[in-house]
Amino acid sequence: MKLIKSILGWLDDRSGFSDVVMPMLRHVVPDNARWWYVFGSATLCAFAVQVISGIALATTYVPGGEAAYESLLYITNEAPLGNLLRGMHYYGATAMVVLAIIHMTQVFLHAAYKYPRELNWMSGVVLLFVVLGMSFTGQLLRWDANGVWSVTVAAEMAGRAPVVGPAIAHAILGGETVGGSTLTRFFAIHVFVLPGLIFAGIGLHLWLVLRHGISEMPNVDEPVDPATYKEDYEARLQKTGVPFWPIAAWRDTVFSIAVMGLIVGCALFFGPPALGTSPDPSDINANPMPDWYFWWYFAILSMLPPQLETFVILGLPVVGLLGLIVVPMFSNKGDRAPSRRPWAVGTVVFGFTALVVLTIYGYRKPWSPDFGVKPLPASVVDSSDPAVVHGAELVHQKGCMYCHEIDGYGGHRGPGLSDIGKRLTQPELIIRINNGGYNMPSFAASLNADELADMVAFLNTRGGAVLKKDASSSDSGVRK
Ligand code: HEC
């Protein structure tokens, strides 16, 4: 005991550890910084979970093509604690994104980004985007259809940007298509580049928190005046401040432990996300879907006219990042109380409503092909003409209905075809099916002339305005 004490004492004396750390822990903070203030430290705690579980996973994960999927199967099904670790890493990521956003919302509502904490806010915004980058790159490491699909979509869209597009797409994919080199690249970004940025960012962020002190709860009678703020803050701290450790920190501790409990609980209870099917492009039963916090983004993209898609997929993150970063530049003084900042409150309410609505819309993902469609029942086909009946079978067999809805059956990637017979003539239908269109593949090579004729015969009946066939053409329907 004595020996340990003297070794520790020696280490402390020579390194100066407590001289540096104790004042940090004991520094005085406002005493009204209550439960509102626990989200930042909890985000940090979730990050710690990510680092630990991530390193553990990296000891077994193989970042290369086919082997990646195999190694994940091994981690999930055989490695000791593997399933738990994957679950913790997944729910930890969710927790980190959610907590960071709550933390940011709280800071915004209380205008804690105003003088002198502008840089705290800016570094925090950058951190949030790096964290989202971690989620995005992490998804691909799962190397199942979901992850591969998300990245393919992103790269394809980036590739459409003028001039720089192809270079960006090439840089994302590490080649022309998603493949082993994409995985290697994403792995390096996910475990070296972005975590490095996060460590540096958190270092800066925490240093700034110490430098400027934790903000007080907003007070209607005390708007921020840069000329006097620091003096007033110091004076109030002298009067009412409490040491961070141990007086103020217990709430952070309790909340962080609760968050960790929740992460481990979810990991044990729900387990990690099931590994999707391996990314086999010929597997049409894949039902690809990015992780839920990106659904809103894909929902926005799906609603845009195609010409705008490219600008938005590249532009929205940049606009979002810059828009958030400049917030303190527009207002770094004056009122902090939410009751005096109706626009700020309105922005938050609007933002979250939009997020929820878009997420729900994104969950239903009407833009993505629906591979689970059922064949059309006879009541919908509503014809005894063999050509029409055969055509109806074909629109199902050939996958038209993955993307097109007919009387409530089928996906929504393309326009509905319930009344297409009224909108397009037979020659127009033939051209469309042979040539495809924007986001519709060409079918010229996969249909023979008879199949095409039957399909057009069927589509032509949609919409009620059926052009009654004359005797000669219904003869052709008799062929088998
Ligand atoms: C991968 C999804 C997808 C598949 C599969 C698909 N389509 Fe399409 N289809 C679309 C999209 C998207 C459009 C809109 C294209 C555009 O506006 O350029 C479209 C447009 C059409 C149109 C024109 C609709 C209109 O209102 O003008 C017809 C007709 C059509 N498709 C028929 C078919 C048939 C028949 C098949 C099967 C042989 C098929 N499609 C397979 C996505 C698909």
Secondary structure: elements and pairs:
Elements: H1 2-15, H2 17-26, E1 28-29, H3 38-58, H4 65-77, H5 82-109, H6 118-141, H7 145-159, H8 165-173, H9 180-212, H10 229-240, E2 242-243, H11 244-269, H12 295-303, H13 306-325, H14 327-330, H15 342-364, H16 378-381, H17 386-397, H18 400-403, H19 420-423, H20 426-435, H21 449-460, H22 471-476
Antiparallel strand pairs: 1-2
The protein binds heme C.
Heme C is lined by residues 369, 395, 398-400, 402-404, 413-415, 417, 420, 423-424, 429, 432-433, 437-441, 443, 455.
Shape: elongated
Measured by DSSP, the beta-strand proportion falls in under 5%
Give helix and strand order, one letter per element, not per position. HHEHHHHHHHHEHHHHHHHHHHHH
Q: What is the CATH third-level topology name of the largest domain?
A: Cytochrome Bc1 Complex, Chain C
Gross CATH architecture of the largest domain: Up-down Bundle
Question: Biggest sheet, open or closed, and with what strands and sense?
Answer: 2 strands, antiparallel
Provide the structure class: mainly alpha
End-to-end Cα distance: 93 Å
CATH superfamily of the largest domain: Cytochrome Bc1 Complex, Chain C
**Could you name the CATH class of the largest domain?**
Mainly Alpha
Q: Identify every distinct bound molecule in the structure, by name, code or SMILES.
A: heme C
Low-pLDDT runs: 281-286, 467-480
Compute the gyration radius: what is it?
Answer: 29 Å
Mean pLDDT: 86
The count of DSSP E runs of length 2 or more, i.e. the number of strands, is 2
